[in-house]
Amino acid sequence: MIESQKIFSMIKSMTGYGKTVCELPTKRIIIEIKSLNSKQLDINLRLPTHYKEKELEIRNIIAQKLQRGKIDLTFNVESIMPDKISRINEEVIREYFRQLKPIAEELGISSNTDFLRVIMPLPDTMKSEQPELDEEEWNIVYNGLLQSIEQLDAFRIQEGAAMFRDVKGHNESIRLLLEEVVPFEKQRTEKIKNRIKETLKNLNINGDLDENRFEQELIYYIEKLDISEEKIRLKNHIDYFDKTLNEDGPVGKKLGFISQEMGREINTLGSKANDSEIQRLVVNMKDELEKIKEQILNIL
């Protein structure tokens, strides 16, 4: 049972989603942001041309607030008026007319000719202007962006609470399995002793067995298979994992490193166990650790 909701918020998922709608006099801007797990911060922006000048500022906000993950941010603009307004290029039209009029007179073309109909299809008679980003509009959009990021972060915290319970449970299972090793470890020494004696007996060695020499060889053999250090180190890693889970800030990478060290000790424990019951416990530890590693991939 987790003691408090505060603990839940210690870790965050990298998965999240946020959406905000900004209502403006001539347009409606829908801001959507989502994140998935990633080793680094990977930001992908889909912005209208109107907001390109703010791209660096937007990237800095996301980096500061979200820190890590594959982030996709989209601005969808629904405008009453188009962003690009076409305007008549008066200077170009005048220049066309200045050149066409003497030619028309020379050729005897009536002065009543509709020159505009002739000129307007010609190149560069119309020009598109991109309106400058209004500061008031940007303030509204900026606040909408912050709201979207806050929604995504709240989603991450909620997912993190579930992940905390899951990962903590698997870590505790490894602790309990390690404790189960102890009684089998005590039995193992006697099993090894009997196995060596039986082997020597089957070899039909002539003469009496030198008990002192036998004990020396047995001690040497058991020392090679001793798992005391592995148990101590594994327990320390389990405790450190638990402590790290309750730290503030991003801990996903740190938990990944600790889980790797736990895996090394579990593998060594299994290779030195020389006992079927301990091997069974080691297999279960590995299964619990794999479940931890799967979750860590999505922890911020």
Automatic annotation (TrEMBL):
<comment type="similarity">
    <text>Belongs to the YicC/YloC family.</text>
</comment>
<dbReference type="InterPro" id="IPR013527">
    <property type="entry name" value="YicC-like_N"/>
</dbReference>
<dbReference type="InterPro" id="IPR013551">
    <property type="entry name" value="YicC-like_C"/>
</dbReference>
<feature type="domain" description="Endoribonuclease YicC-like C-terminal">
    <location>
        <begin position="185"/>
        <end position="299"/>
    </location>
</feature>
<dbReference type="GO" id="GO:0004521">
    <property type="term" value="F:RNA endonuclease activity"/>
</dbReference>
<dbReference type="GO" id="GO:0016787">
    <property type="term" value="F:hydrolase activity"/>
</dbReference>
<dbReference type="Pfam" id="PF08340">
    <property type="entry name" value="YicC-like_C"/>
</dbReference>
<protein>
    <submittedName>
        <fullName>TIGR00255 family protein</fullName>
    </submittedName>
</protein>
<keyword id="KW-0378">Hydrolase</keyword>
<keyword id="KW-0255">Endonuclease</keyword>
<dbReference type="Pfam" id="PF03755">
    <property type="entry name" value="YicC-like_N"/>
</dbReference>
<feature type="domain" description="Endoribonuclease YicC-like N-terminal">
    <location>
        <begin position="11"/>
        <end position="163"/>
    </location>
</feature>
<dbReference type="InterPro" id="IPR005229">
    <property type="entry name" value="YicC/YloC-like"/>
</dbReference>
<keyword id="KW-0540">Nuclease</keyword>
